[in-house]
């Protein structure tokens, strides 16, 4: 058997070898080694930062048509290869193949959207309060940006950071999650052939303690955009603010899905299942708190248990599978640990929660649903980041709203109701950055802003035209006659 193919860093327009490599293992089949991926040391990260810094003056003032064409080429190739790239994504992260292909398509569309944004960047031309003076308000590129992405969306989240960064004239040093370097490398390879000058885009793979720290603490990095855990995000914020670098954070969630008495029961069950368990629950927008009013509670619990019996767990590439594996052994142990915690706290296991045996060795877990839980339980307060959800019974809408907002997080929140009154009230009073009415809490468009409140997010929004708030700086120019 030949050794798995080695994949190098991309620095300064060249593929650069490393002194160490790490195996990328398929969580659906632990015997499947996808490849070996380079592990950067601090010196290689600094080389990438220097390459980006050297490329910035020319790139930031380059023609917008060239930027647009290059981004559009990237998007077109991603979309043309969505089956191939989706298969790679499913192998390394564990999403089912249809979900993986959907994520790849989203990444392609993001690049195409920002190809258009290159041509739509606007400013203001205003009269001054002083006679004979006019004012121009324009946006310019931030500089060198460090992009640190998580493992749960290994091509979509990199796309929604890289595309706007390049569109607005920044140079990029990109560090993907060490657990899923395959999609990141494939994306970098596509970008390497799209016509960007050397140094404009750089890929450095490896651990957060080495690569991430080097990016975050470098005085030559003007901004850091990070998606990941709350603890790491807060440390990044401290480091960036201390040296006055711009910072953007997307972190955890403990998202509520409210089910009111007047909800359509079948619809409510389906959106709850999708919110809580699809993508193996490994989404920051997943709804792990199902807040259900008393009149529909018992019927909802029964219907959820029945629906969950039909969920098929298995190899991500197998046809007919609803939910793939947990991404890693460590994440599986965390999920199982929370299932034990919930039991010990007195919650009642309604469905799932056990390991699943498949034809291949992998990290397969039947989604777990708990009932009879209370707001003070850890299962109701802490982010599990897996296919584990709990039902909390409340008296009425007012109690449901209060319970939904009773969290340190504020990313996404949903409500199932046929009442326009309650839907409108919830949209206004939910303390979340995104609100879903009769829709799953997980599932967002690429052309509109993404982000939360409270402990979920810090800094300006991602995606859509709102991305310019992070990747550009505002300049005000006064012109006299």
Percent in helix: 25-40%
Main β sheet profile: 7 strands, mixed
Strand content: 15-25%
- Derived from helix and strand composition plus strand pairing, the structural class reads alpha/beta
User: What is the average per-residue confidence, as pLDDT, rounded to a whole number?
Assistant: 97
Runs in which pLDDT lies below 50 for 5 or more consecutive residues are none
Q: What's the CATH C level of the largest domain?
A: Alpha Beta
Question: What is the name of the CATH topology of the largest domain?
Answer: Aldehyde Dehydrogenase, Chain A, domain 1
Q: How many separate helices?
A: 15
Could you describe the 3D structure shown?
The chain is of the alpha/beta class and 481 residues long. Strands 15-16-17-14-13-19-20 form a seven-stranded mixed sheet, with helices on both faces. Strands 10-9-8-11-12-22 form a six-stranded mixed sheet, sandwiched between helices. A three-stranded mixed sheet has the order 1-5-4, covered by helices on one side. The chain is globular, with a radius of gyration of 23 Å. Helices cover 39% and strands 23% of the residues. It folds into two domains: 271 residues, Aldehyde Dehydrogenase, Chain A, domain 1, CATH 3.40.605; 183 residues, Aldehyde Dehydrogenase, Chain A, domain 2. The chain contains 15 helices and 23 strands. Helix 1 packs across helix 7 and helix 4 packs parallel to helix 5.
How is the topology of this model organized?
Blueprint: E1 6-7, E2 9-11, E3 14-16, E4 20-26, E5 29-39, H1 42-60, H2 64-80, H3 82-93, H4 97-117, E6 124-127, E7 133-141, E8 144-148, H5 156-167, E9 171-175, H6 181-192, E10 201-203, H7 208-217, E11 223-227, H8 230-242, E12 246-250, E13 255-259, H9 265-277, E14 287-293, H10 294-308, H11 329-345, E15 348-351, E16 368-371, H12 378-381, E17 388-394, H13 397-405, E18 409-410, E19 412-416, H14 420-429, E20 434-437, E21 453-454, E22 457-458, H15 468-471, E23 472-480
Parallel strand pairs: 1-5, 8-9, 8-11, 9-10, 11-12, 13-14, 13-19, 14-17, 16-17, 19-20
Antiparallel strand pairs: 2-3, 4-5, 6-7, 7-23, 12-22, 15-16, 18-21
